[in-house]
Amino acid sequence: xxxxxxxxxxxxGGQGSRLGVLTKSMAKPAVPFGGKYRIIDFPLxxxxxxxxxxxxxxxxxxxxxxxxxxxxxxPWDLDRMNGGVFxxxxxxxxxxxQWYSGTANxxxxxxxxxxxxxxxxxxxxxxxxxxxxxxxxxLAFHERKRAEATIAVLEVxxxxxxxxxxxxxxxxxxxxxxxxxxxxxxxxxxxxGIYIFNWKTLRPYxxxxxxxxxxSHDFGKNIIPNLLRAGADLYAYGFKxxxxxxxTIGSLWEANMDLIGKDPVFxxxxxxxxxxxxxxxxxxxYIGSEAKLLDCLISEGCxxxxxxxxxxxxxxxxxxxxxxxxDSIIMPNAMIGEGAVISKxxIGEGAVIGEGAHIGAGRLPEDGDYDTxxxxxxxxxxxxxxxxxxxRVPVGMIVK
Amino acid sequence: xxxxxxLIYTGDASMQLRExxFSRSVAAVPFGGRYRTIDFMLSDLVNTGIYNVGIIAxxxxxxxxxxxxxxxxxxxxxxxxxxxxxPPFVTHDNTGVYRGTVDAIRSCMGxxxxxVQKYVILMGSHTIYNTTFNAMLRSHIESGADITIMYxxxxxxxxxxxxxxLRIKFDENGRVCDLALNPAQTDTEFTxxxxxxMEKTTLEYLxxxxxxxxxxxxxxDVLVTNVRNLNIRGWEYSGYVARxxxxxxxxxxNMALLDKTVSKDLFSHEHxxxxxxxxEFPASYVGGGTAVDSFVADGCVIEGRVEHSVLFRGVHxxxxxxxxxxxxxxxxxxxxxxSLDCVILDKGVTVGPRRVLxxxxxxxxxxxxxxxV
Lengths: 400, 373
Prior knowledge:
The complex is a heterodimer of chains A (400) and B (373).
Chain A: E1 6-11, E2 32-33, E3 37-38, H1 41-49, E4 54-58, H2 63-70, E5 84-88, E6 92-93, E7 96-97, H3 103-108, H4 111-117, E8 121-126, E9 129-131, H5 135-144, E10 149-155, E11 165-169, E12 175-180, E13 189-198, H6 199-211, H7 219-229, E14 234-239, E15 243-245, H8 249-257, E16 285-287, E17 292-294, E18 296-298, E19 303-304, E20 307-309, E21 312-313, E22 318-319, E23 324-326, E24 329-330, E25 335-336, E26 341-343, E27 345-347, E28 352-353, E29 358-361, E30 379-381, E31 386-387, E32 392-394, E33 398-399
Parallel strand pairs in A: 1-4, 1-8, 4-5, 10-14, 16-19, 17-20, 18-21, 19-22, 20-23, 21-24, 22-25, 23-26, 24-27, 25-28, 26-29, 27-30, 28-31, 29-32, 30-33
Antiparallel strand pairs in A: 2-3, 6-7, 8-13, 9-15, 10-13, 11-12
Helix pairs in contact in A: 6-7
Chain B: E1 4-9, E2 30-31, E3 35-36, H1 37-48, E4 52-56, H2 62-68, E5 82-86, E6 90-91, E7 94-95, H3 101-107, H4 109-114, E8 119-123, E9 127-128, H5 134-143, E10 147-153, E11 166-170, E12 176-181, E13 190-199, H6 200-212, H7 218-224, E14 232-236, E15 242-243, H8 247-256, H9 260-266, E16 283-285, E17 290-292, E18 294-296, E19 301-302, E20 305-307, E21 310-311, E22 316-317, E23 322-324, E24 327-328, E25 333-334, E26 339-341, E27 343-345, E28 350-351, E29 356-358, E30 365-367
Parallel strand pairs in B: 1-4, 1-8, 4-5, 10-14, 16-19, 17-20, 18-21, 19-22, 20-23, 21-24, 22-25, 23-26, 24-27, 25-28, 26-29, 27-30
Antiparallel strand pairs in B: 2-3, 6-7, 8-13, 9-15, 10-13, 11-12
C-alpha cells in the first residue's frame, strides 16, 4: 500500500454517559448537532479540509448509528481508492481479544491498521468536540519545530484551568510539564485532546504502555507523561477560535445556541471551510402563513406552522399550528403538536410532542423530586418518545 | 431491479422559457428551491430500480454536465451500467447538431444497442412528476402494447400547456386511436406526460425507419403518424404534473409548491428526489428576518421579510428588504430596503439597496443569471 505522510485516528468510542438518554442508542459522535450535522462531521470535515484523506474511526459503544452514518465516507469525500474512512471496532485475534480499555489502548490495538500506511505522522482526534481547525497548519508547526509530538492547546480563563490538562511551556512552545487537572494551574494552556505524533516515536510507547498493568492506557494520563519523562521533544500548538466539548446536556445546548443570530459566537456559514454531512434528501423547508420566526436555524424538510424563537430546528421537524418553541433544540424528524409549548428544551430524534403539551413548564410541588444533575434547567425528551397531549413536563426533567 | 433502461432527451430549448434557458438546457433549469428538472426524471428512474440511464445532450449542456458529475448523487455511479451523458459528436454521417429527436436518438444508438435491458423508458425533460414506473411497466407487458404512454388528465379548456401538448384519444378497448400535437381545439383531457415505454428493439426499428424516410421528430413522425399501425396504450398518472413549457408555467408550478398537497406529492418520503449536495449551512433567520408561506432551502440568510416565495440555496435577503410572490435562485442577493414582487431572480443575481422590481403573476419579471441591478 502506498505510504501516507499522515493519517488520523478518531476516538469515537466514548459512551457519553453525561448526555443521558440522548446517547442511549448511539455513540456520542453520532449525536445530531447544528441543524443538519452530527458531532463527528466536525473532525471528519476538518480532516478533509486539511488534506488528510485517511481516517480510522475507533468505535465500540452502540456503533450501529455511527457505522450506518459513515457508510462509504462519500459525504466527506472519504471514499478513496487509497485511504478513506475506516470504522475500527475492537476485534479478536487468535484466542485474544478485548474491548478498548483506554484511548492509548484503542490506538495500540490498531497498530496493524496504521502500519499498513507506514505514515510519518499520526493525528489523534476525539469525536466529541465542535470546532473548525486546520490540522495542516498544526502539522507544519510540528515539522518546523522538529517535534516528536505536538499537542493542540487552547488558552482558557485561568480560573477554569483546573478542569483541564494544562501544559507548561518554555518561550519556544516546548512543553516542560504536563499537569492533569491541577489545583493551582501555572498556565492556562489547556490540552484539546488533539495530538500529532511521529509514528516511529509513538509506536514503541503504545506497545510498552499496553504491557504495563498499572497504566490506564490513556494519552493524557500515561503516554504524554511518559514521553515527557523520557525527555522527548513535545510542543504546544496554540489554537485560536471556537472549540467546545459537547459532552454534557448544558454544553450541547449552548453550542447549538452559539450558531444562532446575526453575528453568531460560532460562525458555521463559511464557504472556505465547509462542514460536510450526509444529506437526508429532503425538500426545502416550508414556513406557513401564520408562522412567526425570530433568530432561528431551520433545516431542509422542516414544516413550520407555529412560532419559533432562538431555536434550532433539525431536518424534517414539524411544528404544528399555534405551537411556541423558545430557546430549544428540536432534533431530526420530531413532531411538535398544535399549541404545544416548548421552552429551553432538547427534543430527541423522532420524538412526538402531543397537542397542547408543555415541555419545560415551571416546577410545581406536585412534580415531586426528580434528578436534574445532568440537565440543570434544560428539559430533555428522549429519542422516539411520545409525550401525550396536554402533558406538563417540568423544567429539568428527562422524559424517557 | 427492473429490466429497463432510461433514455432522457434534453435537447430542445424552449424559446418560451426565455431567459431561463439562455445559458442552459431545460433539463438544467432550477426548480423547487434546490433541484433541477433533470433530478425528477433521474430520481423517478432510480426509485423504480433502473440503474442504466442515458442522457441525450444537445445544446448548452455545460451546466447539465456540471450538475450531473459522475451521477453519484443519484446512486448512478456504477460499475455495471450507471449514468451515460451522450453529447453530440461529429462523424462522417453525423453533423453534430440534431435535426430532431429521431436524429438525436439515432446518434446514440451505440448506447441503446449496448444496453442489455429489454425495455426502454423514453423521457423528455420538460415534465416533472414524482412516481415510479414499476406499475406502468407491468401494465405495458401485460397489455402487449407496442408503446405505452404515460398520461394525465388536464382540463380541455386549459390551453396553458400549449407547447408540446400531446393529446390522446382512446378507443373502447383502451387502445390509442388518435394523437394530436398542439391541436388548435381538443375534446380530450388525456395529455401525454412525455414518458414512453417500449421494447428496445421497437425503438431501434422505429428510429431507423423514420430516419430512412427523412423524418426527424419522434412525437410527430413516429407516434402521431403511426397511431393506426402501432398498438399504443396509455397508463394514467394521477399525481401532480408540472409541465415547464413557458415562464408562465415555470412560475405557476414553483408557486404551487406552497400548496401542501402539491409539495407532498412532488416530495414524498417514500420516493425522495435526489440532487447535487451543496453542503450549505441550515437557513438562518436573523434579526427581524422572517418568512411566511414560503419554501426556503439551506444556506439562506434571511434578515428581511419573505412572503409567498420560493428561495433556493444560499440566498441572502438583507434587512428591510421585502420579497413577495417571487422565485429567488441560488446565491442571489437582495439588498437592504429593496422590494420585489412577482420576480424571478436567476442564479447569482444581485439587487442593490432600495430597488423596486415588480412584475405580474401572468408575466413575472425575469433577471438573467448574474445580472446586477
